[in-house]
Each structure stands twice: as C-alpha cells, then as structure tokens.
C-alpha cells in the first residue's frame, strides 16, 4: 500500500486531507453515495489498494483477481455528473494520467447499486484519449496551478 501523508490532500481531489476524506472508507466505513464511492475508488487506484477495489465491486461483475502493477500514473479526477435514486446511481467522471511526456484520460459513465446499505461499483462505459490542456487551464497534475506555470 502506498502511504499517504496525514497532511496531504486526498488524491480524490476533494481538497480535504486523506484522513478526513477517503481513508475511513478504505478502512471499512461504507461510502454514503455513489460519488463518494467513486472518489474513494479513484484514491484506491492512486494508492495501490486492489483489495479495496475488489471489495467495493459488485459481486456479479467483480474480477476474480485484480493487480494494479500496470496501472497508469493517475494525476487528477474530475466528477462531471453524479446522481442517485433509490438503490441505483451513476457517476460520470474523467481521470487524467501521465502519458509519456504528455497526458491521457479515461472517461467513464459508471453504474452503482446499493445493497444492504452499501454502495457497490457495478460497471462502466469507458473511453480513453490524449489530454491536451491549454496553457491557462488547470494543470492536470493536480497542483492547482495553471498548466503554463507548472508542467508545460
């Protein structure tokens, strides 16, 4: 498991510290919404927590094994839309990663289901591409600075 310093922002982009944000979910507290679960799952990818990812994956679609050895270097998460109605929910997100000297992205419309009070990731429709931020866009590394003043 990758260690997340106590005073650093949570990898999910919430601007909260990791102990105030995703750590309780990684330690077994159930996520209260599909968006919260998606954020904690993204943080689990960043922090190399495959057991958490499998535990929060619905049993009907969960892979038997999961390794993150070939996972990209995830840098930022953007929630584009999120909704929950009854025991089902959806989250549309874009996750950015380093791609050689540039950037790539994974965009997904994810489906979630709640069973016995716990939300689970069910499945997602994904697309990937190359990310080309503009000079004045926020830097995809997640620093909060403009791209031209950071990683350009």
Strand tally:
4
Spatial ordering of strands, largest sheet: 1-2-3-4
Structural class of the helices, strands and pairings? alpha+beta
The sequence of SSEs as H and E is HHHEEEE
- Which percent band covers the strand fraction? 25-35%
Continuous helix count: 3
- General form: globular
Low-confidence stretches: none
* Largest sheet descriptor: 4 strands, antiparallel
End-to-end distance, in Å? 30 Å
Instruction: Give the rounded overall mean pLDDT.
Output: 92
Helix content: 10-25%
Radius of gyration: 15 Å
Labels describing this entry:
single chain, 152 residues, alpha+beta, four-stranded antiparallel sheet, 4 strands
Polypeptide structure, described:
The structure is a single chain. The chain is α+β, with helices and mostly antiparallel strands. The protein has three helices and four strands; from the N terminus they run αααββββ. The protein has helices at residues 23-26, 34-46, 50-55, and strands spanning 74-85, 88-99, 102-115, 118-131. It has a four-stranded antiparallel β-sheet, covered by helices on one side. The two termini are 30 Å apart. The mean pLDDT is 92.
Would you kindly provide a brief summary of this structure?
The chain is of the alpha+beta class and 152 residues long. Helix content is 15%, strand content 34%. The two termini are 30 Å apart.
Topology, element by element:
Elements: H1 23-26, H2 34-46, H3 50-55, E1 74-85, E2 88-99, E3 102-115, E4 118-131
Antiparallel strand pairs: 1-2, 2-3, 3-4
């Amino acid at each position: 498991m990758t260690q997340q310093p106590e005073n650093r922002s949570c990898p999910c982009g919430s601007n909260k510290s990791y102990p105030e944000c995703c750590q309780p979910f990684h330690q077994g507290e159930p996520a209260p919404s599909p968006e919260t679960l998606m954020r904690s799952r993204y943080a689990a990818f960043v922090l190399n927590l495959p057991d958490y990812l499998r535990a929060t994956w619905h049993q009907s679609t969960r892979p038997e094994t999961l390794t993150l050895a070939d996972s990209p270097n995830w840098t930022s998460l953007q929630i584009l839309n999120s909704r929950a109605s009854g025991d089902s929910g959806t989250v549309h997100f874009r996750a950015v990663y380093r791609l050689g000297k540039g950037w790539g992205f994974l965009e997904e419309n994810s489906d979630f289901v709640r069973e016995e009070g716990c939300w689970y990731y069910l499945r997602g429709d994904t697309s990937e591409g190359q990310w080309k931020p503009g000079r004045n866009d926020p830097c995809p590394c997640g620093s909060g600075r403009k791209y031209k003043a950071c990683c350009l």
